[in-house]
Amino acid sequence: MSLHNRYGILFTAVLGVMFVIMLKADVFADLTETSVIEFTEAEEAWLSAHPVLKSPTTTQSELLPIYTHDEHGKYVGLGVDIVEIIADKLGIKIEWVDYTTHITAVQALIDRDVDFISFIGENMPGEGTRYILSSFFQQFPSTLVVPKSVTGTVTLDSLYGKRLAAVYYWPEAEYLKENFPDIDIVEVESPQEALQKVAFGEVDACVLILPVAAYEIQAGGITTLRIGGRLNRVFRQGFGIRSDWPELVGLINKALASMTEQEKAELYNKWVPVTVSDGGEYKKWLYRIGVASLVFFIVLCGVAFWNRKLRQANLAERAARAEARRKAEEALEAKLKMEKAVEEELALRKKQVRFIDMISHECRTPVAVLQTNLDIMQLKNSDNPDFAEKNVENMQYAITRLTELLDSGLDKVQSESGNICVSNQLFCLRNCVQEAVEHIRMLWPDRVIEFVSVRDSINMDGDQQLIKTALLNLMENGLKYSPPQEKVDVFLKQEVGNAVITITDRGIGISEDEQRRVFEKYYRSDRGVETGGTGVGLFLVKRTVELHGGSIEIDSDIGKDTVITLILPCRRNS
Ligand code: ADP
Fold this sequence. Notes:
The chain is of the alpha+beta class. It is 49% helix and 20% strand.
């Protein structure tokens, strides 16, 4: 094997590997799109008027792989596929008309019984006058087929004085007769006959176009023949079109021009097997094609990878922009969150300020009472003991009220830091409720608070002072949010391991909506705002009850009785 041949095979192999890799990597994705044909109005009109065109088949002469019949008798081959591709591009249908041989089919074209034939070589008799040839879409080298026993490169010079078969209506026959008078040209009817003559030794060689020779030898399994050389000529192929339809020539030329290289290669590779021959011109030809293709593919690779790089750069830029947008959104979200937190903090501060206002407002009244009564005492010089006693009594009430407010304020401060101190001692809940009732009666002397307990003593463990403060809050609410003539009922009972205390008033009531919020710190309903209050009472009551393992429930609605129920764990049978 010569150096050239080795390089040829090497390059072809490299080419194949590169091609497969590139196909796998999808690098041709941008390069393989089929171009769209733009038809003129006249062309559109012509196509609409001729939706079906006739093309011939040949039932007897087979020109493999251009026209042949498959095992089901279907007419197939390069020539059939190219017609269907063109029909598809033009948007027309094909009516296949059967003829016996290629010659009769060409005659039908000349007689305008069919509209066009796919494979007609250049310089065939009648071209330009009896039919029109389209632009060329394929070109095949003419090869010399010899018996395998003939070694080395076969040239026309080496066939001087020898017999060479050629198909009589192919231009090759005429060309050889004119230019090589020393070769004995034997004209035959078909490529098959030419090959047969070589195989049987009736001639020394035959001349055939490459795909036909390759197909017959490789696919047809003729093992005794080989492609030994080639002529310095190519045989260009086009469509033969009936002579009175130049419009169809233009349309077929447009359709052929729109075929991509890839489409053409796919079509060729589908039908023409790869040929391998022992040395000679043909291999040189393969070698040159290999080198040219390699250069072409290197350029193609460059373009494809450049495209890919551009695409990657685009993607990277898009990703960077998306990342920047995401960061900006995150920053905005963080800013909004901060603003919301600041707003909430401000709202809380406002509530706290209101709370302190309330406390001072609540303190002001009892202090004023003290002041007034002391003034009166001074004025009256306290001569009248009855009068002084009444004033002292008023002052005592006022001081008690003030003390309570201060106590509850202290609790609130403690609770703010989550720091309620709970002492744990055994005490009698009944007595505790009784004390709270008496206390509240003292603070609200004009109101009626009724207390009923079903048991004399109910013992529980916990912080008596805290429980008492919670009860005072609830009773005071009952009084605050109901009219002066209405009484407040306090009821105590025991159910298994729990003490149940209910405080009922007949006041403005608490709506369902409000019930969900009254235990929030600083919450005050819009209704009854004229009543003094801080909005922390129920918050503290709930916390106190929960610290003792109990629960609190509200049963009320606007304008209805409000029943607050405290359930506190207690000692059994106490
Ligand atoms: P306040 O100091 O405002 O009374 P609370 O925490 O004790 O604070 O009560 C919260 C809110 O619940 C009150 O502002 C009031 O709107 C409503 N509320 C509490 N108890 C009653 C009740 N017995 N009847 C009607 N509304 C009540």
